[in-house]
Design goal:
Blueprint (H helix, E strand, L loop, with lengths): L29 E5 L18 E5 L24 E8 L6 E8 L6 E7 L6 E8 L5 E2 L1
Antiparallel strand pairs: 1-2, 3-6, 4-5, 4-7
Length: 138
């Protein structure tokens, strides 16, 4: 997705959060961990790497919700499309994972994708294409 810097970012969590997910946009409940953390599955990232980091919800937050919010992205057009590809793991205890879009002229977040716990205990991948004529966050 197009921000003021580069045309696309590869985001992993090996050293910290990625450029698209600033620290202050990480709501309480999310933790950065790997498969060796002793917190239960998943025991590796989507590539099978046990020491690679990913974001996970802490067990204390399971009864409520927690959000991740991106930086502000610039409007999309034919030249600058926005595709967000992400890997996700939904466990037996999870509720629903949702992706929302908030345009800067709107106060509300529009749900553009969601999945519930039917694909259990495995990594899945999804790509979302976003169109917006104004600045937005995901």
């Amino acid at each position: 997705c197009f921000n003021s810097g580069s045309s696309w970012d590869k985001c992993d969590f090996e050293t910290n959060l990625c450029k698209s997910l600033p620290e202050f946009n990480l709501h309480p409940g999310w933790i950065r961990r790997n498969g060796q953390s002793g917190m239960g599955p998943p025991y590796s990232d989507h590539n099978g790497n046990e020491s690679a980091y990913f974001l996970s919800l802490s067990s204390e937050i399971q009864s409520s919700s927690a959000a991740l919010r991106t930086n502000v992205f610039l409007p999309t057009d034919e030249e600058h499309i926005c595709q967000i590809r992400f890997h996700y793991w939904v466990s037996q205890m999870s509720g629903t994972l949702m992706v929302g879009l908030q345009k800067h002229s709107e106060d509300t977040v529009t749900n553009i994708w969601q999945v519930s716990g039917e694909l259990r205990n495995q990594w899945n991948v999804n790509t979302i294409t976003i169109n917006s004529t104004e600045k937005y966050e995901v």
